[in-house]
Design brief:
By secondary structure, this protein is α/β, with parallel strands linked by helices. The protein has one domain. The protein has eleven helices and six strands. Strands 1-2-3-4-6-5 form a six-stranded mixed sheet, sandwiched between helices.
């Protein structure tokens, strides 16, 4: 079977057939929406799913979306690695708004900087010779499976540039949104009403049983669930998902080793500091003993040190 034929094997499984097969599926989902390759494939191939997620994040009604296009589609089956794989999905909404969507499960400690970099690049969208006033609004929406700022946990955080004194928004065209998949309990009623909470639950689902239960809420959730089942049967998609999973595991291992090294270093520093304090105390006790000996013998402390055969650090 050629590479192209492998890429197209998913088309052999109709979504209608997947719906029936899905009813019997049990156990752990091999590759969920948390796999960024799977996330990309489904949003790229299923416009209804993409539209629903965007509407949930931007508080739009479905009918407000006349057109939605993924501008950086990936080629299914094309080999990827962590250096070349583009994390964000670049979307043009109604030909007048740019949206970057990103699934991020690993905390690489650089998301604020990287997301701003993506956002800034997207904001630089004025055509040559056009007026700056015509710049398209941009949104970078990150679905993070960790809490970005642990001291300020929030399910759905929205960031804009504003005046620090009076909080006047500098521009409404430069937006950074963060959906914390680990903080669903902090969701507001609005987050429930827009459907964002339900999408988050679908993303986080680990078994086919819980995914089926969530999919019953609406057609888009059902389509996403069926698509996830279809692509979990496709060998070429699974191969790339596996590559991403290997990358996650490698990075987690690296982070664990770095953390262990950091803790070991801190422990060593603590031991050294304790030894330093002990030596300083011994030195002070020694100074006191020398001083008392010098007073008793009516000699200088230097002479006392010579007679006692010791040296004291200042």
């Amino acid at each position: 079977m050629s590479q192209k034929e492998k890429v197209n094997t998913w088309e052999a499984v109709k979504l209608s057939e997947a719906a029936e097969a899905l009813k019997k599926a049990t156990g752990t989902i091999p590759y969920t929406f948390l796999n960024d390759y799977m996330f990309r494939v489904i949003l790229q191939k299923h416009k209804n799913v993409l539209r629903s997620i965007v509407c949930a994040c931007l508080k739009l009604e479905t009918e407000e979306v006349q057109d939605i296009v993924v501008q950086n589609p990936i080629e299914l089956g094309e080999a990827i690695d962590d250096k070349t794989f583009i994390l964000d999905i670049h979307v043009l909404l109604n030909n007048n708004t740019i949206i970057n969507l990103e699934m991020q499960v690993l905390d690489l400690k650089d998301w604020p900087e990287r997301s701003l970099s993506y956002l800034a690049r997207s904001y630089d969208n004025v055509a040559k010779g056009d007026e700056y006033i015509n710049v398209k609004p941009v949104y970078h929406i990150g679905f993070l499976n960790y809490t970005l700022f642990p001291e300020y946990p929030e399910f759905f955080a929205k960031y804009q540039m504003m005046n620090l004194k009076n909080h006047n928004v500098y521009t409404s065209k430069f937006n950074l949104y963060v959906v914390d998949l680990t903080q669903i309990e902090l969701a507001t009623e609005e987050d429930v009403d827009t459907g964002l909470v339900y999408w988050t639950q679908v993303f986080k689902a680990k078994t086919w049983e819980e995914l089926r239960q969530m999919a019953e809420r609406n057609q888009e959730l059902q389509e996403a669930t069926e698509a996830l089942y279809v692509y979990n049967q496709d060998e070429i998609v699974k191969e790339q998902c596996r590559a991403r999973q290997d990358y996650y595991n490698h990075e987690r291992g690296t982070q664990k080793r770095l953390e262990e090294a950091r803790l070991a270093l801190e422990e060593s520093k603590a031991v050294i500091e304790a030894q330093k304090e002990t030596l300083e105390k011994k030195n002070e006790d020694l100074k006191k003993a020398v001083r008392l000996y010098a007073e008793r013998m009516y000699i200088t402390e230097e002479e006392a040190c010579e007679q006692m055969g010791i040296a004291i650090e200042d």
